[in-house]
Specification:
Layout lengths: L1 H28 L6 H7 L4 H7 L3 H29 L4 H18 L1 H9 L2 H4 L8 H18 L8 H20 L13 H9 L7 H18 L14
Helix pairs in contact: 1-4, 1-6, 2-3, 4-5, 4-6, 4-8, 5-6, 5-9, 5-11, 8-9, 9-11
Length: 238
């Protein structure tokens, strides 16, 4: 039993290494430029070993997409449910879940890239039984419709609100994921250091970035909510 358990654990660890290597390569080099051999080389295994775990590159993409969509959807829905249990109304839940969307994307840039930037689902022809990207849209649409029904949101079609909200969140997330807080100081640095600084993705959320997130979301929410609708002044401790 011990040997079996250890073998299972070793297999799971290697499977995770394969997926981590593939995730990095897909993001940095693009799907078309990644092969099973290149993934194997990155983790210093033979391609034959990779094929024991995944039939082809598309199978790896499917597993990656299932994983990142599920994690992202779970984070958003878990927070929304906790906020509802603690008595937060629908405008507050929309505002705080939107913050979580942006913060997740900044703190997990490779995951976010695979879901919404590299578009692996289309370029790889991967087929998913359960698409959590669509689930995320449905979840957001239902929340917006509730806010409209309760007359918190101005009388606009829910789909228009959802699409504009998602566009704003995506733009904010991608901008801050590659945002340099050193703008205006680059001229004081050597050119090689400038290139290194600006090419790295900073997945931390500094107070400055947090201020931008809060400022942007509050102004957007005020544009769609009825005048005088209050929003939380600070993040809740759930």
């Amino acid at each position: 039993m011990k040997h079996h358990a250890r073998r299972e654990r070793d297999n799971e660890q290697l499977r995770s290494k394969i997926m981590d290597a593939a995730r990095t390569l897909f993001v940095t080099e693009g799907y078309a430029h990644v092969s099973m051999r290149k993934i194997a080389d990155r983790i210093e295994y033979s391609p034959t070993t990779i094929y024991h775990y995944f039939a082809n590159k598309e199978a790896i993409v499917q597993e990656l997409l299932r994983e990142v969509y599920s994690q992202f959807f779970t984070v958003l829905t878990k927070q929304a449910n906790q906020l509802e249990e603690h008595g937060y109304d629908i405008p507050a839940r929309l505002f705080l879940v939107s913050k979580t969307y942006v913060e997740y994307g900044i703190m997990h840039p490779d995951h976010y890239d695979i879901m919404f930037i590299s578009n692996l689902e289309s370029v790889s022809n991967a087929e998913l039984d359960v698409n959590d990207r669509l689930n995320g849209y449905t979840f957001l649409h239902e929340a917006v419709q509730i806010a409209i029904d309760q007359q918190y949101i101005v009388d606009v079609e829910a789909d228009i609100i959802v699409r504009s909200l998602w566009a704003m969140l995506h733009g904010l997330t991608t901008t801050l994921s590659s945002f340099s807080e050193r703008i205006g100081q680059e001229q004081d640095e050597p050119q090689t250091q400038q290139k290194d600084t600006l090419s790295k993705k900073d997945n931390s959320i500094s107070p400055y970035k947090q201020h931008i997130i809060d400022f942007t979301l509050r102004h957007y929410m005020k544009s769609i909510l009825q005048p005088g609708t209050p929003l939380p002044e600070s993040d809740p401790e759930l």
